[in-house]
Amino acid sequence: MDHVCSHLTANFERLGLDRPHVVGNSLGGAIALELGARNAARSVTALSPAGFFGPANRFVALAQLIALRAVSLASPDAVLRAVSATSLGRRIIGSSLYAHPERVDAATTLGDARAMKASKAFERVALAAMQYRFNRRISVPTTIVWGTRDRLLPFSQSATARERLPEAEHVGLVDAGHVPMVDQPEKLVQIISETIARERSESAPATRHVA
Predict the structure, then answer these.
(1) Which domains does the chain show, CATH number per domain?
(2) The 3-state secondary structure of the chain, one letter per residue
(3) pTM for the structure as a whole
(4) Mean pLDDT for each 10-residue chunk of the chain (211 residues)?
């Protein structure tokens, strides 16, 4: 994680970005939180971030990821293309990631499956992510968003996030899965905008749910 954050902050400097607002999902959410803890971001919006696993959560998540990886590796491209072309196929493929996998089109589903199949470091990154634990303080405006229908990193993990980061705002995004950008895009844009606009001096709000 130190290497990733150092690489990102170096790129921020190279691009002339002074502590940008950051948004990340899953492992990207954990990276966003780490940037906030390092004061390398002006605000943080973390979507179902890794690092708040319960006793069994990490094994359940790893099993789902390994299953997705195995299916992608075992399936010829013609099979992936055929499955991605049907609504039922997209629902099966995306059931662990989205509350509404039917909203993802065939081209996106096929592209995701191909990317997972071609990944060179999938297993190494997945195993490292499962061992990661976030337990730091953040002084910049931070919102942690968790889909109430997240099957990969269940919503119950948001309680751990609230305990470790009481200074953050915690949002339960109703009817959203692990990748809320697909399930609730408009509400997510609103939440990100509110996080960016929030003053540093604002006291930590209580958990709320967005219907």
Answers:
(1) 2-52+133-210 (3.40.50.1820), 57-127 (no CATH)
(2) CHHHHHHHHHHHHHCCCCCCCEEEECHHHHHHHHHHHCCCCCCEEEECCCCCCCCCHHHHHHHHHHHHHHHHHHCCHHHHHHHHCCHHHHHHHHCCCCCCHHHCCHHHHHHHHHHHHHCCCHHHHHHHHHCCCCCCCCCCCEEEEEECCCCCCCCCHHHHHHHHCCCCEEEEECCCCCCHHHHCHHHHHHHHHHHHHCCCCCCCCCCEEEC
(3) 0.88
(4) 92 94 96 96 97 88 92 94 92 91 92 93 89 93 97 95 96 96 95 86 56 58
